[in-house]
Amino acid sequence: MAASLCCLMILSACADHDNPVYNEVIDDKPFTGDQDIDKSYIPGNNFYWYAVGSWLEDPNRGPSQFELVSTQLTNAYYNNLMTSQDPVISHIRNLAEQAQTDDSKMVELLKNNLAVIDAIKTANDRDLIFKQLQNLGYHPLFRISPIINSGNIWGLVTNGGKPRAIDQIMNYPDATQSEKLDAKVAEIAGGLKDMGFSEKRVNEITAHAQEIEKMELLIHINTYDACHKIWTINEKARRKASKEEEQAYAYLILDLMNIPQKYAGYLVPQESVDVLYGNQPSFNPLFKLYFSEAPEDIAKVRDYLIYNTYAQDAAMLPSLSPKLTLKDIMHNATYALKYHMFKTCVESFGLQNIHKEECSRIMADMRQLFDERISKLDWMSDATKQAARQKLAAMKFSIGYPDQWNEEFSPEVEGSNLLEAIIYLRAFQTGCSLKTLGKSAQDYAWEYFTSSVPFYLDNAFYHPSSNMLVILPSWLTDIRFSTEESDAKRFATSFCFGHEMSHGFDANGSMFDSQGAMKDWWAPEDTVKFKNKQQEMIELYSELEIYEGLHVDGAQSLTENMADLGGVTLASELYKKQLQAQGYSQKGIDEQLKKFYLSYAQIWKNSRILNKEYLDQHFAMKNEPHADEHIRVNGIARLMDDWYRIYDVKEDQKLYVAPERRVKIW
What we know:
Elements: H1 2-18, H2 47-56, H3 65-83, H4 87-101, H5 104-118, H6 123-135, E1 142-149, E2 152-159, H7 164-171, H8 177-194, H9 199-229, H10 241-256, H11 271-278, H12 284-291, H13 295-314, H14 326-333, H15 338-349, H16 356-375, H17 382-394, E3 396-399, H18 418-435, H19 445-449, E4 460-463, E5 468-471, H20 478-481, H21 487-493, H22 495-503, H23 524-542, E6 545-547, E7 550-551, H24 558-581, H25 586-603, H26 612-620, H27 629-637, H28 641-646
Parallel strand pairs: 3-5
Antiparallel strand pairs: 1-2, 4-5, 6-7
Helix pairs in contact: 3-15, 4-14, 5-13, 7-8, 8-9, 9-13, 16-17, 16-24, 21-24, 21-25, 22-24, 24-25
């Protein structure tokens, strides 16, 4: 009996081997990325429209991911602003509520401050008041702006802060810009009359201020251009004699503000700074106007200081800006609280709702995968590979929010009324900004970036001069990065992490070394091969049409296209590795990859691509490195071998690219 049972067991075991039964691994998490598929489109002809076409064609379409994230974080920001029990924010809110009832003490304070400025008669008077305004955070005419170069934070003398309402009009020009500016100037003029200035003085003040604003606008526009050129000019720029004069003026500004010259990046002879200031119009006219001792020029500067100070403070005073709501006042009043507002927004939104830990895990795995891929490249020499891997290893990831908050950057509030409190907070923020000078950018990443990056900004970015990338909360909430939905969506979102990582090695980022210095670390023969690959990318993207008859400028969008290729490559490969480790069959992997590519298309779902006027304007923006959304999807899909297999793309379909032309870089 025992033998029979033994034989039966052996026979049963043999039978199981002859006819194995597999437990197919399946994705049991919800997936909604296929809800917008339009099957009237063939993936190989237009994958973007195949993936999201039914949404685009629906006149009652719901919000896109971008819109959902923007709404979510903007609401969280205002909720924090209006309900937070943080001592600083709640105290400002109490003062703002009091100001809505009675802001007479604030108005009187502003009148007194304007009277002090109006008493300027000499160059010494001017310099004294200018220095006081700078220290109080008004920053008229000039300011010290922290900027990163070669891994450290330096102070640049740049054009100063304008009233936010005017700044917004200047920053976003349109057909009504002149009309808007005239209306704003008229509003300021009316307010100055209320402050007790005669009509004659108001006319003088506004005329002088507008003259200076035109000079500021020219510098602002071309500084913006130069900031983009900084990453695209390869040759070392040489300052002309006029730049030496400009440099001397910058010393004078620094002396006025008691800033140690050793912290002034403007004066540090590094290539990246040379490039920036070698390509922008001179500050000299503005410098010369300020330092002139001619009575008429001193009067112009005095009147601009009056105009600027009034316009900044009037935006906080209900009686001077009657359209202001409490929400508006709070937004304006806390504008200087950059780091602290970011901190309290993160805390009120909830750390558990920002998936920093999961992002950190994926990015660590992605860095390892990237390193492996670099080590196996067949077109790059060992010496360049070693330098590339060293740069990748040194790259700093700043994810979601700081690991530890810097309490030095969270203030206490002083002042018995809102304007006094705001002046204190402006001065506090100026002090915080100066504290970062001379510090390591990687050590002070969040202190530096939150000065210009609010909590609700939907973005991520790589900074070549510090070899650091920043992932903001917008990419880490459940809308894009949920752990409850199919992993395909989360890994598609992770393309963003690989995208920013790849920026360190794109046509521009590759000019900077592991420490953020502009340095050529490439073997000459590798540079030639790399440029050939860039040219192949340019040609492939230039084949695509934004709409019929208008082709993509592949050169203009090269760096972003390269980063997209790196990001999707890394994210999809990492996802495949996970699927294989989880035991998925090839068929199962392909089904998950379909979800991955659909999720990638969902990221770029945007109805503005239906607007020809928008597309024309976007194409005409020569400093805009990003391709339109449908191009970012179709352009990358046609370079990915897996996409061809899983969507059965044929040679006669529009997006088809022969295997030998599918660019592989990293």
